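Memo to structure team: turn this sequence into structure tokens by end of day. - J.P.
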Amino acid sequence: MNDPLPASATDAPPGSPESKRRVQELSLLYNVSRILDQSLDMREVVSPVLEAMADNMDLQHGTITLLNRKTGDILIEAAHGLSPQQARRGRYKLGEGVTGQVILTGEPMIVQRKSDSPLIVDKTKRGKRPDTSFMCVPIKVGQEVVGALSAETPFLPDRDLKNDVRLLSIVSSMIAQAVQLRRAAQEETEKLEQENERLRQELRERFRPSNIIGNSHEMRFVYDQIAQVCKSNTTCLILGESGTGKELVAHAVHYNSDRADKPFVRAHCAALPESIIESELFGHVKGAFTGATGDRKGRFELAHGGTLFLDEVGDIPMAIQIKLLRVLQEREFERVGGAETVKVNVRLIAATNRDLQAMVADGKFREDLYYRLHVFPIYVPPLRKRKADIVLLADHFLEKYSKDNNKKVRRLSSAVIDMLMSYHWPGNVRELENCLERAVLVAEGDVIHPYHLPPTLQTAETSGGSVARGSLKELVDAYERDIIVDALKSTRGNMASAARMLATTQRIFGYKVHQYGIDAKKYAG
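Reply from structure team:
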């Protein structure tokens, strides 16, 4: 494809059509050469090259496509005369359409009239126009096809497109090095992105605390936030409803920090009476009040070098909020009844289920303290917003309480799973844990059934079922079907083993399976 121009064009008399064409071709090649001399960055040269082709020849809608060796996808890298939307639609597979065929075979192709060719797949949605011809040539680096250069030209019945194809081939060979560099850069970028994603996944696993259960999108975001903040000394404010596991998040931040070998001290502000909360947090000296028989360190001093977790910080009285603000600003305070200033090095993590912004607006929480606490908020989603984790959490609690109570309860029945997934869980993870603890205690065998769950989960509204208010026969049939399915699950679809497990004959068991329309093969494997 790098042959010199034909003798008929070289020897043509001045002013003839052949001579004019030769001048156009030489002008095009000169312009392409000049563009490539300025840069080999394909992003900088492809558009000018395509524009030069349009200016020096009667070529329209030129495109350069690149082959991704890993995926086999062929994408438009640059286009002249196409809108961005049309260019994005130009995706091909090897062998698909004219472009796919050219890259697959490494041979140029000519379509005299687009409307007549079944190979025109029209991915760009420009239409298979009868007044247009289409040409496509491979872009090669050595013997390897790395992409394709294509162009359209107005259809003329007596026009010989071989010279146009030959010129396109010369241009494609000139830009091949730039194309190769661009493809190498793309593949390197993809490799780096994959490596970055692998490293991010490793970090997620590394900073995913072992005491938090959940793989949902919502919890992965929480893990990312923990990873971002744990290595700093930044104050955290953990927000979320009661029972969502805010203290577990606080533990995760502390035990993945540089303070992990230092104390983690907890203060539940709502559980401390207002009369002693100041002493509990900041300590007191002997004689500070009745009963103060000696000096006593508060939670801040006990947490020196480590982390202090203030749970339900929204319940701290206004008078104490002022002193807490000073500790956050100056890292110093005085004990109750004392005059000596105590300096501490403490990382503060606060948590609340209350709307602190609304409390600030109502004058029940200091605005300056709110902004001191709200440096890095972490929102822990309620269980109803992370339903993908419900079964995972239930299995965890099932194993935990079976072990604690020396029982051999191994799994949940299908009906129980449906009920757990349908319930709205106002008490969040804490309610789920209590529910599973109760179910394990009352279970007789190795499976949790619906009647082992608390009454709040056993209504038609929560279970999503329709038989809870049916006839006695319907209720008994539903229960019997549930037992049969559980037996088949336990025996991996083996009907004989399931019949023995339920102390019945294989004939009766088979009859029941047929009666309830159960597919035993579904549970095999």
